[in-house]
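Hypothesis: this fold can be encoded by more than one sequence.
Test: take the structure tokens below, design a sequence, compare later.
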């Protein structure tokens, strides 16, 4: 029953709307026609009259046009309301245009609401996720993780272990040569050359910290007679024999092993074969051999050429893992002249290391220029100059030798023996020995 009442009311409202619109159309058409006929009659009268009024004619036409436009707008708005935005009751009892409109939900349908929703709201709506009937709500599946990440973690771990083992092996390699013990021995038994000792130990530590090298270590010690070059070589040879073995250390005295210049070619061949055998044995034992060449100023050109070929060889790695030490008095005149001329500028409070650094900085270019003219072997060598010994250093040599021979270390006797040595004129408070400690052993043997 309720549906029939609503349907009858709707049909009544639609009939009322149609009748209303028909009456309004007839009235408006009649009004417009009347106005137009009146305006035409007026215009005809104005034509007959000798003085027509153009202003009254134009104003009447404008009024007619405004009335027609207003009527068409009202008619269009009524049609839009009749299509679904209003009801018959609202049309019958609607207020004039100037009155405020009150919005109600009467007459609105879901279709009309959906048509009035903007398009951009529809775009923002997210689609519903449909799940199986029996499964219920499930979380979205997690993306599969790539195995490359775990491989990368494994690679990092392997690299870290390799680097750690390399560092540990470096420490073990340095500890094998007991450089701390060598340093204590050299500081205790080498007098007046602490700067040169520090430089030599620095080269050894840098070279022995790893087993793989791109060139051998070549160190050349230069100084006047009696400053401790041969003594330093004997200490190094004794230490390395106790560390790497007797067969991997060579002390070569040119005046003893090859005194005749006619035998220089044969001596060079024998020396080259001996060094090759030693480096191959050292490669098998994973050790670094030591070759000491004393009195290098007497070495023949053929021997120097053979050594240069061995040191510059790039055929195999065993020739690159070796230490060559040259001891000579080449360039001793430059060292003596420099120390005698610059002793006045050397401060007494300066340490031995500081004096040696100044000596090394000023003399190394001069010595290198002199040595490279003799043979190109010294182009790749690290040059360390040894300075003159002062009277205090000579007294230390006497004390050490007398203690070694079992004599009572009498200071008065030591000073007397040191006074018998020849010295250069005192310069800047320094009194340098002309022969160093070379005569110490002979004088102690005379006691």
């Amino acid at each position: 029953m309720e549906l029939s009442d609503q349907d009858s009311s709707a049909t009544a409202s639609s009939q009322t709307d149609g009748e209303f619109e028909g009456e309004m159309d007839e009235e408006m058409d009649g009004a417009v026609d009347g106005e137009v006929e009146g305006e035409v009659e007026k215009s005809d009268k104005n034509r007959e009259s000798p003085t027509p009024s153009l202003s009254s004619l134009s104003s009447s036409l404008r009024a007619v046009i405004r009335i027609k436009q207003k009527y068409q707008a009202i008619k269009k708005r009524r049609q839009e309301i009749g299509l679904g935005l209003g009801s018959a009751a609202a049309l019958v009892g609607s207020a004039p245009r100037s009155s405020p409109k009150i919005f109600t939900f009467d007459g609105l349908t879901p279709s009309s609401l959906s048509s009035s929703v903007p398009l951009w709201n529809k775009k923002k709506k997210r689609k519903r996720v449909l799940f199986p009937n029996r499964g219920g709500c499930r979380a979205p599946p997690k993306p599969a993780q790539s195995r490359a990440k775990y491989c990368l973690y494994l690679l990092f771990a392997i690299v870290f272990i390799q680097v750690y083992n390399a560092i540990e092996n470096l420490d073990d390699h340095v500890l094998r040569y007991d450089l701390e013990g060598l340093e204590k021995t050299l500081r205790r038994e080498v007098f007046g050359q602490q700067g040169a000792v520090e430089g030599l130990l620095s080269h050894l530590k840098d070279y022995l910290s790893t087993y793989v090298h791109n060139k051998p270590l070549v160190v050349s010690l230069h100084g006047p007679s009696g400053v401790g070059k041969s003594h330093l070589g004997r200490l190094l040879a004794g230490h390395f024999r106790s560390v790497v073995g007797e067969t991997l250390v060579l002390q070569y005295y040119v005046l003893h092993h090859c005194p005749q210049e006619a035998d220089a070619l044969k001596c060079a061949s024998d020396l080259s074969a001996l060094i090759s055998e030693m480096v191959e044995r050292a490669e098998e034992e994973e050790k670094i051999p030591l070759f000491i060449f004393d009195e290098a100023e007497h070495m023949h050109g053929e021997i120097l050429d053979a050594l240069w070929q061995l040191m510059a060889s790039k055929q195999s790695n065993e020739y690159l893992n070796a230490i060559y030490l040259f001891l000579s008095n080449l360039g001793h005149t430059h060292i003596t002249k420099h120390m005698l001329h610059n002793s006045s500028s050397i401060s007494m409070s300066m340490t031995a290391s500081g004096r040696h650094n100044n000596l090394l900085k000023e003399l190394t270019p001069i010595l290198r220029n002199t040595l490279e003219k003799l043979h190109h072997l010294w182009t790749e060598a690290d040059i360390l100059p040894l300075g003159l010994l002062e009277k205090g250093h000579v007294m230390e040599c006497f004390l050490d030798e007398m203690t070694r021979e079992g004599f009572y270390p009498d200071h008065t006797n030591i000073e007397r023996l040191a006074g018998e040595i020849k010295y250069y004129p005192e310069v800047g408070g320094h009194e340098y020995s002309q022969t160093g400690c070379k005569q110490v052993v002979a004088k102690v043997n005379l006691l």
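The mean pLDDT is 77. The longest strand covers residues 217-222.
Hypothesis status: open.
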